[in-house]
Amino acid sequence: MGILTYKGDSFYMDGDKYTVMSGAMHYFRIPNEYWHDRLLKLKECGFNTVETYTAWNLHEPEEGVFNFEGDLDIVKYIETAKELGLNVILRPGPYICAEWDLGGFPAWLLKYEKMDLRCHDELYLSKVERYYGQLLTRVRPYLASNGGNIIMLQIENEYGSYGDDKEYLRAIADIYSKYRMDCLYFTSDGPCNSMLKGGTLDEYLAVANFGSKPEERLAVLKSYRPDQPLMCGEYWCGWFDHWFEKHHVRNAEDIAADFEGFFKIGASFNFYMFHGGTNFGFMNGANCASEYAPTVTSYDYCAPLNEAGDRTPTYYAVRNVIKKYTGVTTELTAAETKKAAYGKVYLTEKAELFENLDNISQCIRTKAPKFMEELDQGYGYILYRTKLDGPRDQRTLTIEKIRDRAQIFHNGEPKAVYTRWAPPAEEEKLSFAVERGETVSLDILAENMGRVNYGAHIRDQKGVNGVRFDGQYHFGWDTYRLPMGDELEGLEFKTMDGKPINKPTFLRGTLTIDGEPADTFIRLDGFCKGFVKINGFNIGRYFNEAGPQKTLFVPAPKLKKGKNEILVFESDHTESCCVEFLAEPDLGDTTPTNK
């Protein structure tokens, strides 16, 4: 491996002119058992570098508690790339966007009400430095200056899209220097005046992010940095999907034609994404411009490698462009992973949420409903329960802040759904009276559907706040935190009795596999909304009424030979107790993308 430098408009690797040909693959979106396969396919496409963010919220899920093991073993990922002769571009954030919950920030940061994110706030920077102390000391031996393969290190991420605090950007660079991160620092921003002005530092390399017209976009960057090499930090080959939208696709020939522009002007590039992977668990982010729009579980991105890691037509089209301009072709040796259609599995047991609250949670008494973060909860669901004694006049239930979907139950029966993206009209809200001598129960089950990951609204707390009947606030609530993690081992199941399921329920069944497991895709026709765990691993959310995504990717490393536990949490209702495992994905109806 070599040390990357630049002089004038060219990059140099150990003194020789060099073109950075990078592809983005996030280790935390890929099972670690597949890292070698995906990186080898990147190498065999003709790329010389892999780029990855790091996810602070995964590495420090609780304040002061760190995890760098298994699918989060970033050192192993870097070592695997080195074994294959690939350089690494590291983008530690601390903010990463990436359509990832809260842009990679840990949810516990939101407990600090007076802390300002993404600026020179001393308290915030102290949290960043503690995380960086854990991360950077682990990866420092793999810097090119230490004989490793990390050649570039990003300062923050697309900061000009958010702010213009140069003191903050320099503070991040200073932390890098403190931990002796001796490599090429850079910033990346959109190719427009406000973003480049706000997010760049004169003393460091600047690159630009975009998804089309490389000659035109990089001309803007060149007007700012005429004496630096041109590089696209993110070339968006596709796009991500939100619920209620169509699945984005992009024509391989169009991408290849666009892609040639980099070679024609001698620019370096980072293909975003080369392989997208999956937003496993509850890690998808959301956008919130005119309205809240959460991202789906799949991060297929219409990339050269699809969500399951298979080569797509874009892969071959891009490979041909690289061969055309470099004359180099690497033999294709990496096989596609095996896929299996395991067929239908009947879920034979059920555990109703309301009957299991004390088995999987503890009651917290509060006067008013509090957000998850105030109660030291990051992800999943949260239940607010109260009782109302009569007499009470007919009144309408209003929730001032809904983050993000609230199901309302009156005496245990589902009555209404309030959502952040489509707040109910007055006539759609729940309204009821309570007679003298009567007591009614009210439950509000709120789901965190993903924190905003981009823009001005990233301080995105979850749960509900401000519950009132007409103008009168209601106080006195029992709250149950439901992160839907290991605590689910306390569920008590009953045999399915054939009765309709119309309230939050866990359903369980067994998939039996003969021989070594293969990749597969689970389809939940007849179900409404929820998530799926397989052998305790959360493979992600489904939302059939919204679409577009119809199947969830189940990687073989999360399965085992013999019996596999399938756990489905259906929050609304289901017409079926049967799921099906297929050999092909269905990401929904498509819409063309041109970024």
In short:
With 595 residues, the protein is α+β, with helices and mostly antiparallel strands. The chain is built from 10 helices and 35 strands.
Write up this protein.
By secondary structure, this protein is of the alpha+beta class. Helices cover 17% and strands 32% of the residues.
Characteristics:
595 residues, alpha+beta, eight-stranded parallel barrel, six-stranded antiparallel beta sheet, 35 strands, 17% helix, 32% strand, globular
Stretches where pLDDT falls below 50 for ≥5 residues?
none
**What is the distance, rounded to the nearest whole angstrom, between the alpha carbons of the first and last residues?**
34 Å
> What value does the Rg take, in angstroms?
25 Å
Give me the side-by-side strand order of the main sheet. 4-5-6-7-8-9-10-12
Helical stretch count? Answer: 10
Overall shape: globular
Amount of helix: 10-25%
Q: What structural category characterises the helix and strand content?
A: alpha+beta
Oligomer: single chain
* Mean pLDDT across residues: 97
Strand content: 25-35%
Main sheet summary: 8 strands, parallel, barrel
Tally of DSSP β-strands:
35
Topology:
Blueprint lengths: L3 E4 L2 E4 L2 E3 L2 E5 L9 H10 L4 E5 L2 H4 L14 H10 L3 E5 L30 H18 L10 E5 L11 H13 L5 E6 L3 H7 L5 E6 L3 H11 L6 E6 L10 E3 L2 H13 L3 E8 L10 E3 L3 E3 L18 H14 L16 E4 L2 E4 L4 H4 L2 E4 L14 E9 L2 E12 L1 E6 L2 E7 L11 E4 L4 E9 L15 E7 L2 E2 L3 E6 L11 E2 L9 E9 L6 E4 L5 E6 L2 E7 L7 E4 L7 E9 L7 E5 L7 E3 L3
Parallel strand pairs: 4-5, 4-12, 5-6, 6-7, 7-8, 8-9, 9-10, 10-12, 11-35
Antiparallel strand pairs: 1-2, 2-3, 13-14, 15-34, 16-27, 16-28, 17-26, 18-23, 18-26, 19-22, 19-24, 20-21, 20-23, 24-25, 28-33, 29-32, 29-34, 30-31, 30-33
Helix pairs in contact: 4-5, 8-9
